[in-house]
Write a structure and sequence with these properties.
It is a single chain. Helix content is about 30%, strand content about 25%. By secondary structure, the chain is an alpha+beta fold. It has 2 domains: about 70-195, Protein Transport Mog1p, Chain A, CATH 3.40.1000; about 200-330, TM1622-like (Protein Transport Mog1p, Chain A, 3-Layer(aba) Sandwich). Strands 1, 2, 3, 4, 5, 6, 7 and 8 form an 8-stranded antiparallel beta sheet that branches. Strands 9-10-11-15-14-13-12 form a 7-stranded antiparallel beta sheet, with helices on both faces. β6 (about 150-155) and β7 (about 160-165) form a beta hairpin.
Length: about 325
């Protein structure tokens, strides 16, 4: 049987399908060149203001508004837990387990200065602790501490800070000093316009400042040190002599739970090849563990488990463990 020649309706339908596929392909081609705002400094896209900018008319209530002298470069974008990957593909898994609620993105600029364009990304993390966690885990090495908020830093052309349950990033296409100052002003205005509860993070005060490397302690809400039961773990980096090592602390409901957690983590290390070594005389209840060329020290004080992680030298590990124990004794009952 001869194959039936397609009619004009079939031909038009086929052409329509091919045109749609071409449009999708073009969109994907363009998307691969869109750089996410959280990329390294200097790689941010420069958002150019339109020829005749006009205030945004959002389709839902917005926390972001144009500062005085600035203009919104379009309506804000909103992302939920189901769509977050569209904005930060590859990093959504940091935010989602921490309690992510929503992300609002706004873009602003000055009509007479195209280089002033900035993007504001406001993450609602559901709680101050969750907001601090994502802030702390994304710190940049080139950070410059800022004093307009308890937790804030500036890195090249981006400003990062926490405000209650919110974690915010303000990103510019320029690292010029005047633009940096404008970003600070915008952050201050956003904080003033957005009421927020104070973050209650008492564990930070338990980590001694002596020998501590600059930066804020990191908060692992889950899977601290690669061990899933080790949640709400605060960790800071230290420099003792030529060695860099980490100190950590986490709080449980009571001393029994803290001791049980320490035993479980010790067993986890030993199941993975660690070796229990001679105890530390000044801290006899602490467990000194060698682990493939590094040293771990674990101990408890009341409802808290604390210790030293990845020390390249035992003496340095002991020094930090004693410093941490004595500081905890004076900082909290």
């Amino acid at each position: 049987m001869a194959m039936k020649k397609p009619g004009w309706r079939e031909m038009l339908a086929g052409l329509a399908i091919l045109a749609a596929l071409a449009g999708v392909g073009a969109g994907l081609y363009q998307e691969q060149f869109r750089i996410h705002p959280a990329a390294q400094a200097g790689n941010y896209p420069e958002y150019q203001p339109p020829a005749t900018p006009s205030p945004a008319v959002p389709s839902r209530p917005t926390h972001l508004k144009a500062p005085e002298g600035w203009t919104a470069l379009g309506p804000p974008d909103f992302f939920s837990a189901d769509t977050l990957y569209e904005k930060i593909d590859g990093r959504a898994e940091l935010y989602l387990p921490a309690g992510f609620q929503s992300l609002e993105c706004g873009r602003f600029g000055k009509p007479d200065n195209p280089e002033s364009a900035i993007e504001v990304d406001l993450y609602d993390m559901g709680s101050p602790r969750a907001a601090y966690s994502v802030f702390s885990l994304q710190q940049r090495e080139d950070a410059e501490a800022q004093d307009f908020a308890r937790f804030a830093y500036l890195a090249e052309n981006a400003l990062f800070f926490c405000h209650g349950r919110y974690y915010a990033e303000i990103i510019s296409g320029s690292a010029a000093a005047p633009i940096r100052e404008e970003m600070r002003k915008l952050a201050a205005q956003l904080m003033a316009d957005l009421p927020a509860e104070t973050a209650d993070l008492p564990e930070i005060a338990l980590l001694p400042r002596a020998h501590r490397v600059a930066g804020h302690p990191r908060l692992y809400l889950t899977d601290g040190l690669g061990f899933s039961p080790l949640s709400d773990l605060f960790m800071a980096d230290y420099q003792i002599g030529e060695f860099q090592l980490s100190g950590f602390v986490c709080t449980r409901a009571d001393a029994a739970q803290a001791q049980e957690l320490a035993r479980a983590y010790q067993q986890f290390l030993m199941d993975n090849g660690a070796v229990l070594e001679a105890p530390l005389p000044e801290l006899p209840d602490a467990k000194v563990i060698s682990f493939f060329g590094t040293w771990e020290i674990l101990f408890t004080r009341g409802p808290r488990m604390a210790g030293v992680h990845e020390a390249g030298d035992r003496l340095c590990a002991e020094q930090l463990a004693l410093l941490l124990d004595r500081h905890m004794a004076g900082a909290a009952p």
